[in-house]
Amino acid sequence: MAGVELIDVHKKFAETLALDNINLSIPEGLVLGLIGHNGAGKSTLFKLVLGLIAPTSGSIRVLGQVREPGRTPYELQVQIGYLPEVVVLYGQLTGREVMDYFGRLKGTSRGQRKQLLEKVGLGPVANKKVKTYSRGMRQRLGLAQALLGNPRLLVMDEPTTGLDPIAAEEFYDIIDTLRSEDVTIIWSSHVLSEIESRVDEVAVLLQGRLIATGTMDQIRQRIGLPVTIRLSGRFESVGEQVKAECARYGDVDVKDADHIEIRVADAKKIKAVAALAGIPSLTDIQVEPPSLEALYDHIVSEQNRSDRDA
Ligand SMILES: Nc1ncnc2c1ncn2[C@@H]1O[C@H](COP(=O)(O)OP(=O)(O)O)[C@@H](O)[C@H]1O
Ligand SMILES: [Mg+2]
Predict the structure, then answer these.
(1) In angstroms, what is the span from residue 43 Cα to ligand 2's centroid?
(2) Domain end among 164, 195, 221
(3) pLDDT tens digits along 23-54
(4) Ligand 1 centroid to 157 CA: how many Å?
(5) Whole-model pTM above 0.70?
(6) Please, what sign has the CA dihedral across residues 30, 36, 38, 40?
(7) Ligand 1: residues within 6 Å at CB?
(8) Among protein residues, the one whose CA lies closest to atom 8 of ligand 1
(9) Are 136 and 255 found together in one domain?
């Protein structure tokens, strides 16, 4: 059974086509990174999945049940956790009181509320008012709230926006523990570097259209951007000869006397590494696949080009 399934989904707001024919199936237990610029349709997709709004056409299934906005059975509601883009919490309440409030709605035990506050590292400040919390602490409280009742689906809308690097790292650690608990997670972000190593699959939205889906490896293979081979060593003495050897495999960028980068077609990668490993005075060789950022830029410009030509 798919955790989430969207079939031929369109969503129109007046003149804006926010989602244009979305077909997406997310297996249970998968962590999906939903990426796209502002206005791409990420939040709209989430609201549809959550049953907060209805599609203009198409159908949506969540944990095997067809979505009918405003008619979510309680049993389904408690299986879904949602961390909205903007977490609005009552500043006058303490962390514990916020959890008690939402926890009662989901019929969870006191024990679990306490345990979740510990899990997100808010145990020590559970009795402090939320208005004294930092942005990172509020976000973690939002996550604890979303985890009430052990959801099987967790939807997080740009959860790390505005977090400092340390708070973001703490957040990633919590997500990592959830990954091992087989929760289906959809996580949207426009920070591609945080997504690429932390999700199972990626879905790219551009102006309401899903223009790429799959694992990083699948997307890399399909797009076939070159890899970067980085050589370190003492190349000064060999100079031109080394450069010429490198140039046989791709575009060479001499960073300085000790570092050379070569952009090599993926298909030539192994041959290149084998040959370049023989260069005298080489001390290190690294192969770096194209980043999600590079893939995204490529996909977007290809899409824009084909839209222009159409
Ligand atoms: N309630 C709404 N009324 C009108 N337009 C909307 C509404 N919600 C979203 N939109 C429009 O739909 C498009 C997608 O928005 P959104 O889903 O919020 O994108 P994202 O979350 O990727 O930034 C945007 O053009 C946005 O202006
Ligand atoms: Mg949004």
Answers:
(1) 4
(2) 221
(3) 999 999 999 999 999 999 999 999 999 999 99
(4) 13
(5) yes
(6) negative
(7) 13, 16, 18, 36, 38-44
(8) 44
(9) no
Position 86 scores a pLDDT of 80
Which atom of ligand 1 sits closest to the CA of residue 44?
A: 17
Residues 83 and 178 in one domain: yes
The burial of 246, by beta-carbon neighbours within 10 Å (0-12 exposed, 13-18 middle, 19 or more buried), is given as: buried
Q: Is residue 309 part of a domain?
A: no
Q: Phi and psi of 110, rounded to 5°?
A: -60, -40
| Ligand 1 atom closest to 85 (CA) | 21
Single-letter amino acid code for the residue at 76: L
Q: Can you give the residue range of the structural domain that contains 81?
A: 2-221
CA 243 to the chain's CA centroid: 38
- 310 inside domain: no
Query: How many domains, the chain?
Result: 2
Assigned domain for 233 exists? yes
Please give the number of the atom of ligand 1 that sits closest to the Cα of 158.
Answer: 21
Ligand 1, residues 44, 47, 50: which to mutate, most atoms within 8 A of Cβ? 44
